[in-house]
Amino acid sequence: MVKAKTNYRCSACQHTVGKWVGRCPECGSWGSMDEAPVLVPVANRAGASGLGAGNTRSAMAAMIPSSPAAAITQVSSTTSQANSTGIPEFDRVLGGGLVPGSVVLLAGEPGVGKSTLLLEVVHRWARTGEDRRALYVTGEESAGQVRLRADRTGAVHERVFLAAESDLATVFGHVEQVKPSLLIVDSVQTMLAADVDGVIGGVTQVRAITSALTSLAKTTGVAVLLIGHVTKDGAVAGPRSLEHLVDVVLHFEGDKHSTLRMIRGVKNRFGASDEVGCFELRDTGIEGITDPSGLFLHHRTDAVPGTAVTVTMDGKRPLLAEVQALVVDTHMPSPRRAVSGLDAARVAMILAVLERRCGMKIAKSEVYAATVGGMKTSEPAADLALAAAVASAVTDVPVPPGFVILGEVGLAGEVRRVSGLGRRLAEAARLGFTHAITPEHDDPIPPGMKVKTVTNLGDALNSVRTRSR
């Protein structure tokens, strides 16, 4: 007789050990080690149980699949075509729309607008076709609460069905009765699988529920949208394997002091994983913003010292951003450095380069740096614009109107190339900017735009001062 072997696998990180321990040696989770029986190969099982070579071949023959593997040229791709949700900004992030049988996980902080967005999605989905039914399952609210929000946002439709359920088996029963083409589960952490051990929202429950809903989507062709919670660090709550089970992972972000909301693609099996969709949360619902660049610019008639405009790349989307700086003399022994919307480490680096390479005496001055409109950027392409804004604040000479400044600044004061410069300049030209200061490049220049290429920070600042006279 061959003794069956049992390993123990961590439910949080999937680390496997040979004997049970109270704490996972890999991730440090307590009480997460579950039994994981080792699968013995068929040939070994046959030999161990006294089967001969002929019986082994019979056992292997029994494993022949009922349908043979098909050549990739014979596999139809029409079943994986995306269907538009009716919201262009949401379709952009999804890669064109929802694919039948796909599972999408939308995660975000409480109150950011996840439920409002998906309620608008089911409304647009239902009204675009007679055969489109949507089932909205909520485990956090009652059906009456969802109806009140739908009345407020105008998302009421006869082909949108509501169910306030937290039992997974009951949800499957609703799917069987309604036969929807789109299923919303709000949220996956509130669902309960009665035949699975663990508490609601626990690692074991979340994994089992997501696996069951994924299996439902693949077998029935129903597109499934899951709402997920996030941890205090902003990551998706639950086991890391949760993101591997689904097809698309989206993060819904927004500042509570701003109406701007952004959806970022983290994983996408049907399109690019670095797309960004912009929305505006209003009292009457949520609306997509097709041209968000104007939100991050302060439109004024006169030039003001301490401001500069740059173009950032958020995923594949170019966005114009205005960087502002204020330099104030102080008698305090430790001058203050306040940063909003920018990377504080890069701001400190730019100030040091200006002090050492350009001779600007700002070490004993207070410096405030910020972006306009609540935008957050940390990419190096905004370095040169930040340096120009600080220099403009120090000299009290404004950057000329119609200028856009792009480039990464190194510690030696050199201006380095940035990616996607052609797309950045095209976006700036579309919004009426006529002059640009950039590093040396071979990207196409938009018609009507004059570009000045520079190699170091001193040349860039001199070009700005020359145009200001």
From TrEMBL:
A motif (RadA KNRFG motif) lies at residues 267-271. Residues 79-230 form the RecA family profile domain. Residues 366-469 are annotated as: Lon-protease-like. ATP binds at G108, E109, P110, G111, V112, G113, K114, S115. InterPro entries: AAA+_ATPase, DNA_repair_RadA, Lon_proteolytic, P-loop_NTPase, RecA_ATP-bd, Ribosomal_Su5_D2-typ_SF, Ribsml_uS5_D2-typ_fold_subgr, Rubredoxin_2. Keywords: ATP-binding, DNA damage, DNA repair, DNA-binding, Hydrolase, Metal-binding, Nucleotide-binding, Stress response, Zinc, Zinc-finger. PROSITE patterns: RECA_2 (PS50162). DNA-dependent ATPase involved in processing of recombination intermediates, plays a role in repairing DNA breaks. Stimulates the branch migration of RecA-mediated strand transfer reactions, allowing the 3' invading strand to extend heteroduplex DNA faster. Binds ssDNA in the presence of ADP but not other nucleotides, has ATPase activity that is stimulated by ssDNA and various branched DNA structures, but inhibited by SSB. Does not have RecA's homology-searching function. Plays a role in repairing double-strand DNA breaks, probably involving stabilizing or processing branched DNA or blocked replication forks. The middle region has homology to RecA with ATPase motifs including the RadA KNRFG motif, while the C-terminus is homologous to Lon protease. Belongs to the RecA family. RadA subfamily. This is DNA repair protein RadA. The lineage of its organism: Bacteria, Bacillati, Actinomycetota, Actinomycetes, Mycobacteriales. The gene is radA.
